[in-house]
């Protein structure tokens, strides 16, 4: 039976290099912290909490169930790690005390006393303009190398049909260089495809880690709120919040004009003293579904209808030595696909996320064309099926969520039966 294809270009780009592994390191060479981040009163997990070593790039992000693992070489001589979550007081904890055991890390809500806030004229639009005017002051103005962990997944109805993961090296361009894109190179990757066999419609995600980097709208200033697009939106001060112990203005934004392409709506978080934008949570305006669908579909059968129903994007930055660096991005897209003159339709959900785990120990370099991710490539087509427990070696990763973990178990069973 012929399989029809639909490729979603959630923002664009993807690629591959031969997989390599980390060797020469044993478990005794690392501090390994594992546990679940929870609310101290309700005991509920806190999803996507930040876990990092202050003043460094070393870190990870908790999964949707609040669970994380963090590995740090003992030779780094680091003593403490920090857990941070929006609206909660951060915790600094000892590697030696919590290494090699599972722990529930309890977080307390941080209220915002008014006396802690430096009172500014609260003109929300002016506040956004001031924050955008401080990009050169608050974000790095030199090139640098990062190492990230990337994951993408596609669900058909309630079943995963594809999961792909990769460790990537990133050459991040200065935040005052808007014409030069960041570069990505695959270090190591794997996939599980057809965890549950898909129907005759084959959905693939075109983009991968390069797409994730484009969600960094501070660098890519034609995205969301930026100097060229600032007048496309209405702004409102909606709240005060605490991130990593610092008070932030929460500015809501919504479209005020109609453009040939869809705009966005959501919240940006501006740190009270530096006026750095440290976080944003936003979605695409889907009120014109036909216009919105053109932003996603790269190729589809003529008789297929594609209807986006939900999007959400998140981006976070971490302060290191007075500058704010990209630390985490995530995108979620849901849509329905159905054939003309047919009643039934199928729901799909796509997710991608990337966390910056470390500064690469490699010297600053550009990636050759054959090394860098290429336009229109698809990660799931480029990496092999390989899901062993020790696959990632010494790399920090985002732990899989419970349903992803179950899907991987099913794949492992299939691979074992095939051997």
Structural features, described:
The protein has one domain (4-418). Helices cover 12% and strands 42% of the residues. The chain contains seven helices and 20 strands.
Quick rundown:
With 419 residues, the chain is mainly beta.
Largest sheet: 10 strands, antiparallel
- Mean pLDDT across the residues is 83
Strand order of the largest sheet: 11-10-9-20-19-18-16-15-14-13
Shape: globular
- Based on secondary structure, the structural category is mainly beta
What string, H for helix and E for strand, traces the elements in order? EEEEEEEHEHHEEEEHEEEEHEEEEHH
Radius of gyration, whole Å: 21 Å
What's the structural blueprint in terms of helices and strands?
Layout: E1 4-8, E2 30-39, E3 50-52, E4 59-61, E5 67-73, E6 80-84, E7 91-94, H1 95-98, E8 102-107, H2 124-133, H3 135-138, E9 144-156, E10 159-172, E11 183-193, E12 201-205, H4 209-214, E13 233-243, E14 246-255, E15 264-271, E16 277-284, H5 289-293, E17 297-299, E18 304-320, E19 323-339, E20 346-359, H6 379-382, H7 402-418
Parallel strand pairs: 1-12, 2-8
Antiparallel strand pairs: 1-17, 2-5, 3-4, 3-6, 6-7, 9-10, 9-20, 10-11, 13-14, 14-15, 15-16, 16-18, 18-19, 19-20
Brief descriptors of the model:
single chain; 419 residues; mainly beta; 10-stranded antiparallel beta sheet; 4-stranded antiparallel beta sheet; 7 helices; 20 strands; 12% helix; globular
């Amino acid at each position: 039976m012929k399989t029809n294809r639909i490729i979603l270009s959630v923002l664009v780009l993807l690629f591959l290099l031969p997989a390599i592994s980390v060797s020469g390191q044993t478990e005794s060479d690392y501090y390994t912290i594992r546990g679940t981040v929870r609310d101290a009163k309700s005991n509920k997990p806190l999803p996507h909490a930040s876990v990092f070593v202050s003043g460094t790039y070393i870190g990870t992000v908790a999964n949707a169930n609040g669970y994380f693992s963090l590995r740090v070489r003992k030779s780094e001589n680091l003593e403490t790690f920090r857990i941070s979550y929006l609206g909660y007081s951060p915790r600094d904890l000892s590697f030696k005390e919590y290494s090699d055991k599972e722990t529930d890390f309890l977080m307390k809500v941080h209220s915002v006393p008014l006396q802690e806030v430096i009172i500014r004229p609260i003109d929300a639009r002016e506040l956004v303009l001031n924050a955008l005017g401080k990009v050169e002051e608050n974000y790095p103005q030199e090139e640098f190398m990062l190492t990230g962990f990337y994951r993408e997944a596609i669900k058909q109805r309630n079943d995963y049909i594809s999961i792909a993961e990769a460790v990537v090296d990133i050459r991040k361009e200065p935040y005052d260089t808007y014409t030069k894109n960041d570069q990505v190179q695959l270090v190591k990757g794997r996939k599980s495809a057809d965890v549950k066999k898909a129907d005759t419609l084959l959905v693939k995600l075109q983009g991968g880690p390069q797409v994730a980097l484009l969600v960094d709208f501070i660098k890519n200033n034609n995205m969301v709120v930026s100097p060229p697009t600032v007048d496309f939106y209405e702004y409102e001060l909606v709240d005060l919040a605490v991130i990593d112990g610092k008070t932030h203005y929460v500015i809501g934004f919504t479209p005020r004009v109609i453009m040939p392409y869809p705009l966005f709506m959501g919240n940006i978080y501006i740190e009270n003293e530096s006026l750095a934008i440290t976080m944003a949570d936003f979605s695409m305006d889907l009120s014109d579904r036909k216009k919105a669908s053109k932003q996603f579909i790269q190729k589809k059968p003529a008789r297929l209808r594609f209807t986006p129903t939900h999007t959400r994007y998140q981006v976070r930055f971490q302060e290191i030595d007075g500058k704010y660096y990209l630390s985490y991005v995530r995108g979620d897209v849901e849509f329905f696909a159905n054939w003309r003159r047919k009643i039934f339709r199928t729901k799909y959900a796509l997710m991608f996320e990337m966390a910056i785990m470390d500064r690469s120990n490699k010297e600053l370099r550009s990636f050759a064309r054959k090394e860098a991710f290429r336009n229109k490539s698809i990660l799931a087509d480029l990496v092999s099926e390989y899901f062993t427990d020790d696959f990632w070696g010494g790399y920090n990763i985002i732990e899989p969520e419970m349903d992803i973990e179950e899907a991987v178990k099913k794949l492992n069973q299939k691979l074992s039966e095939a051997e």
